[in-house]
């Protein structure tokens, strides 16, 4: 469930990039693969579309890394020194 938030953040970042660069697609990129995006990119819009794809991937990766990394910084319990001395 938490990973869906990363995908939403990546999608929002790509849409914002498309708005800032003033690019768009000429049709819906179904099924949404990189090849479908490139097939419906108009002439002159390559840089903005590719930039939006790269930014979306980076934001998705960063957010997912943060969300999936929670709790991994906890240290495992170390054995008590008294139990080792008794051996």
Short note summarizing the structure:
This protein has about 90 residues and is mainly α. It is built from 4 helices and no strands.
What does it look like?
This protein has one domain (2-68). The chain has helices at residues 2-21, 34-39, 46-68, 81-86. The chain is built from 4 helices and no strands. It is rod-shaped and about 75 Å long. The protein has 87 residues and is mostly helical.
Explain the layout of strands and helices.
Blueprint: H1 2-21, H2 34-39, H3 46-68, H4 81-86
Whole-angstrom Rg: 22 Å
Secondary structural class: mainly alpha
Poorly predicted regions are none
Q: What level of helicity do the residues show? A: 55-70%
Q: Give the termini distance in whole angstroms.
A: 47 Å
Report the portion of residues in β strands.
under 5%
Q: List the helices and strands in order.
A: HHHH
Overall form: rod-shaped
The beta-strand count equals 0
Multimeric state of these chains?
single chain
Protein name: Mannitol-specific phosphotransferase system IIBC component
Keywords: Membrane, Phosphoprotein, Phosphotransferase system, Sugar transport, Transferase, Transmembrane, Transmembrane helix, Transport
InterPro entries: Sugar_PTS (IPR050893)
Transmembrane segments: 46-70
């Amino acid at each position: 469930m938490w990973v869906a938030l990363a995908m939403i953040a990546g999608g929002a970042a790509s849409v914002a990039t498309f708005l800032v660069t003033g690019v768009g697609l000429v049709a819906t990129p179904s099924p949404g693969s990189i090849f479908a995006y490139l097939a419906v990119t108009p002439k002159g819009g390559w840089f903005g579309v590719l930039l939006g794809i790269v930014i979306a991937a980076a934001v998705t990766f960063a957010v997912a890394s943060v969300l999936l990394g929670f709790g991994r910084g906890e240290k495992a319990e170390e054995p008590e020194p008294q139990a080792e001395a008794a051996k």
